[in-house]
């Protein structure tokens, strides 16, 4: 797992070695650069050695004939199979890295080999005979890849900080993107806060020549978008789920360094550890113990993590972190994320990764993706309950929506009821995508300055998701459509983004067995009633794990992977809130209405509303702006 950057330009030759300093945390084990000045192309790499840590795995890697040059961030879990096949065909290798296997595969089969790869990656490969640079991102989007294109040329990097270090003009602020961050707490689609920076989408590739994009194509389509669930018995589905998950976990444990695992005590991480210990009985596991109090309605994961560790007889290391420290690290988190994602959960990934690294662990297995394949979020249950009220006339649904918004948000139950009926007046896909919104549209627009409203115009924050759903088969149910959104957007643009950025900040690679492509394909064939079984989410996964985990762990209530944010806004973050969202600060920035924001803070303080996440989003945007926009425009985070 590594960091990459580079360029294709007829007029510029940035200092790649210097630019690598901005992403050196991604690859503390080595670095390299390669220029082809005649073609106007350069690529660079920082290395986190996981497979074949010898010099034979160093990058950028050049083919034997000197024609191809590869800079690659990722892991191919099936590289040994590909290597064996290539050797049978007469190919020899200098080392045992998956990088060399990928290079040789492209050399012999061309870029279409992407469709046969099972792994997580973002890479760029230069064909020196033509000067063409081809970039690709893995099927689900586990590894990030940002790019910027202008009259100066084409530039790419694993992180926005890398683009900035290349001396690229990142363009002006993208107000439409900021509106999306505020609506969902993350930005669905390929946009970023800069108009001049975009993300290569999951399962996408592009070819660039002399700073211009020649071709861009989708090489992978989510099975959830095209597969018709089949009829299958619960017994056979349970056994197949067990088999596919076991295979995925075993496959993803390939490494030449120690592999550990997250263990929150939830079903997903516990299932991963249950199968991982079959390969490594003493696999080292990690969890977190926050101190300083929980929000009302939240329960601690820690007792369950201890319960699972004891049941599976695996060692468990615990990060002890106090709430004030987490609040103090919020600014560091936003800077490391490159994007103003308003969620404290990334800090947990950082702290666990830091502890794992001190224990000599470079790779961690994560349970991310279980909810997105098999259901498990509250919105999955909520969309299933629509059958009890969606037949009501639109005006009655609107009344239901308005009245529930007036409930006392200090109480968890009332807060969730209000969330349930937010958007009840909407129809079809508009209602489905509204489940991903954390604030009502009208409430957000009250916070915007006239200039900000004008810049957004009629753009819909949900447009990328609506466009995606328009390509879904008409027969797809609401829950099927929602799971497709989870996999394309919530996973890629939120969970996987922060998992990558925060783990790599500590020099740790995180792997996600639930997103093994064969498991993703299999999960798409399962009928919805085996996933969301009445009020029980992940039903078939729970059945599959009954022989491996304690019943009270499998069927425990779901908890979030976050922090006591509502209390933070009134205590630990109150001073920062008053500083960054002061009237003077907001006037200077020009995005938001100072009086409306102050009123929001006041109402949240009094408990009349629960605006914690909206306030966090405003806070994260201002932190992001101060780092990326205000002088000095670029700083390294180490």
How many DSSP H or I helices?
A: 28
Structural class, from secondary structure content? alpha+beta
Strand order, main sheet: write it out. Answer: 2-3-1-9-8-10
Q: Which word captures the global form?
A: globular
Distance between the termini: 17 Å
The CATH topology annotation of the domain at 224-375 and 483-554 reads as Rossmann fold
Residues in β-strands, percent: 15-25%
User: What's the β-strand tally?
Assistant: 17
User: Which radius of gyration do the C-alpha atoms yield?
Assistant: 24 Å
Largest sheet: 6 strands, antiparallel
Which residues form runs of ≥5 with pLDDT under 50?
Answer: 633-638
The CATH homologous superfamily of the domain at 224-375 and 483-554 = HUPs
What is the mean pLDDT? Answer: 92
CATH class of the domain at 224-375 and 483-554: Alpha Beta
Instruction: Quickly give the CATH architecture of the domain at 224-375 and 483-554.
Output: 3-Layer(aba) Sandwich
Estimate the helix proportion, in percent.
40-55%
């Amino acid at each position: 797992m590594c960091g990459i950057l580079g360029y294709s330009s007829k007029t510029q030759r940035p200092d790649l070695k210097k630019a690598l300093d901005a992403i050196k945390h991604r690859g503390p084990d080595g670095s390299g650069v390669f220029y082809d000045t005649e073609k106007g192309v350069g690529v660079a790499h920082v290395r986190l050695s996981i497979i074949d840590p010898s010099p034979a795995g160093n990058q950028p890697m050049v083919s034997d004939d000197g024609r191809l040059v590869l800079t690659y961030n990722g892991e191919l879990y099936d590289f040994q199979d590909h290597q064996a096949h290539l050797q049978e065909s007469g190919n020899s290798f200098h080392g045992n890295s998956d990088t060399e296997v990928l290079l040789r595969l492209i050399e012999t089969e061309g870029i279409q080999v992407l469709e046969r790869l099972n792994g997580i990656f973002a890479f760029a490969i230069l064909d020196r005979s033509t000067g063409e640079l081809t970039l690709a991102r893995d099927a689900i989007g586990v590894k990030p890849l940002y790019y910027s294109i202008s009259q100066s040329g084409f530039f790419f990097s694993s992180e926005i900080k890398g683009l900035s270090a290349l001396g690229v003009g990142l363009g002006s602020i993208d107000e439409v993107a900021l509106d999306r961050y505020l609506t969902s707490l993350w930005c669905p689609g390929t946009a970023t806060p800069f108009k001049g920076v975009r993300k290569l989408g999951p399962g996408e590739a592009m070819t660039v020549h002399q700073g211009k994009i020649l071709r861009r194509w989708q090489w992978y389509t989510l099975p959830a978008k095209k597969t018709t669930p089949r009829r299958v018995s619960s017994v056979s589905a349970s056994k197949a789920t067990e088999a596919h998950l076991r295979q995925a976990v075993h496959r993803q444990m390939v490494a030449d360094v120690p592999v550990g695992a997250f263990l929150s005590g939830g079903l997903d991480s516990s299932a991963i550890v249950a199968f991982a210990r079959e390969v490594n009985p003493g696999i080292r596991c990690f969890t977190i113990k926050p101190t300083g109090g929980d929000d009302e309605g939240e329960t601690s994961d820690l007792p369950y993590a201890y319960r699972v560790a004891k049941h599976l007889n695996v060692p468990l290391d615990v990060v002890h972190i106090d709430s004030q420290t987490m609040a103090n690290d919020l600014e560091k988190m936003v800077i490391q994320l490159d994007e103003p994602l308003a969620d404290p959960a990334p800090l947990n990934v950082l702290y666990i990764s830091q502890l794992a690294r001190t224990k000599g662990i470079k790779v961690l297995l994560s349970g991310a993706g279980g909810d997105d394949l098999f259901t498990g979020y509250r919105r999955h249950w909520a969309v299933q309950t629509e059958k009890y009220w969606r037949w009501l006339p639109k005006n009655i649904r609107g009344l239901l929506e308005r009245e529930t918004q007036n409930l006392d948000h200090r109480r968890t139950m009332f807060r969730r009821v209000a969330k349930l009926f937010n958007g009840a007046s909407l129809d079809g896909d508009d209602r489905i995508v509204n489940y991903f919104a954390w604030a009502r549209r009208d409430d957000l627009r009250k916070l915007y300055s006239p200039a900000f409203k004008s810049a957004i115009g009629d753009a819909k924050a949900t447009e990328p998701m609506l466009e995606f759903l328009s390509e879904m088969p008409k027969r797809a149910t609401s829950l099927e459509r929602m799971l497709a959104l989870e996999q394309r957007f919530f996973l890629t643009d939120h969970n996987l983004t922060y998992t990558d950025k925060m783990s790599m900040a500590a020099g740790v690679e995180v792997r996600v067995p639930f997103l093994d492509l064969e498991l993703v394909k299999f999960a798409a064939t399962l009928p919805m009633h085996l996933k969301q079984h009445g009020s029980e989410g992940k039903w078939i996964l729970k059945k599959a794990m009954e022989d491996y985990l304690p019943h009270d762990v499998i069927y425990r209530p779901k908890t979030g992977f976050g922090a006591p944010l509502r209390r933070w806004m009134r205590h630990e973050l109150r001073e920062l809130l008053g500083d960054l969202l002061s009237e003077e600060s907001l006037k200077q920035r020009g995005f938001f209405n100072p009086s409306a924001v102050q009123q929001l803070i006041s109402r949240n303080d009094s408990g009349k509303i629960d605006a914690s996440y909206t306030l966090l989003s405003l806070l994260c945007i201002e932190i992001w702006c101060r780092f990326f926009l205000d002088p000095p425009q670029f700083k390294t985070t180490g």
